[in-house]
User: Which sequence fits this backbone?
C-alpha cells in the first residue's frame, strides 16, 4: 500500500471518528426524540464506516468488497438554509445539518482526489465520494418524504 493511500485512509478514518463523536454529542443537545434517534443512527453509521476503512487499511483494497451503484441525488441541501448546529435542533434541522455535512465530505474527497498521484489513492477517493453521496441521497430522500411528501 502506498504512503499516499495510507495517509488518505488515516485521514478518512479520523474524519469518520470525528463525525461519530459529533453525532453522539449532538444527542445531548436536543430534546427532540426524532432528532436524537436520527443522530444515534448517524453515529452508528459513522462507526461502521470507520471500521470498514480500518479493515481496508489492514487487509488492502482488493480484499474488500465494494459495489458501485448509481446514486440518485435530489440536491435538496444545496437550496436549504439552517442546519448550522445541532444545538437544540429538531428533526428537520438535524437532517439539513447531516445532508450538508455529507456534501462537505464529498467536496473534501473530491479536492483530495485532484491532488493524489497514486492510482489506488485516487480510486479510494472515488469510492469515498460515492459512499458520501449515497449517504446524502438517503438523507435527502428521507427529508423529501418527511417534509414534502404527500399526506
Assistant:
Amino acid at each position: 500500500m502506498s504512503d499516499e493511500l495510507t495517509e488518505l485512509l488515516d485521514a478518512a478514518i479520523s474524519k469518520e471518528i470525528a463525525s461519530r463523536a459529533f453525532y453522539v454529542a449532538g444527542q445531548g443537545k436536543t430534546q427532540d426524540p426524532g432528532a436524537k434517534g436520527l443522530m444515534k443512527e448517524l453515529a452508528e453509521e459513522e462507526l461502521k464506516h470507520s471500521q470498514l476503512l480500518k479493515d481496508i487499511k489492514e487487509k488492502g483494497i482488493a480484499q474488500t468488497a465494494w459495489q458501485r451503484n448509481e446514486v440518485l441525488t435530489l440536491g435538496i441541501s444545496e437550496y436549504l438554509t439552517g442546519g448550522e448546529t445541532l444545538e437544540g435542533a429538531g428533526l428537520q434541522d438535524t437532517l439539513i445539518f447531516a445532508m450538508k455535512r455529507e456534501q462537505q465530505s464529498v467536496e473534501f474527497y473530491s479536492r483530495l482526489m485532484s491532488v493524489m498521484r497514486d492510482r489506488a489513492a485516487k480510486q479510494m477517493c472515488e469510492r469515498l465520494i460515492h459512499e458520501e453521496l449515497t449517504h446524502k441521497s438517503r438523507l435527502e430522500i428521507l427529508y423529501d418524504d418527511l417534509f414534502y411528501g404527500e399526506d
User: Anything to note?
Assistant: Residues 3-63+70-147 form a domain with the Ferritin fold (CATH 1.20.1260.10). The mean pLDDT is 86. Helices lie at 3-27, 33-59, 91-115, 119-147. The chain has one domain: 3-63+70-147.
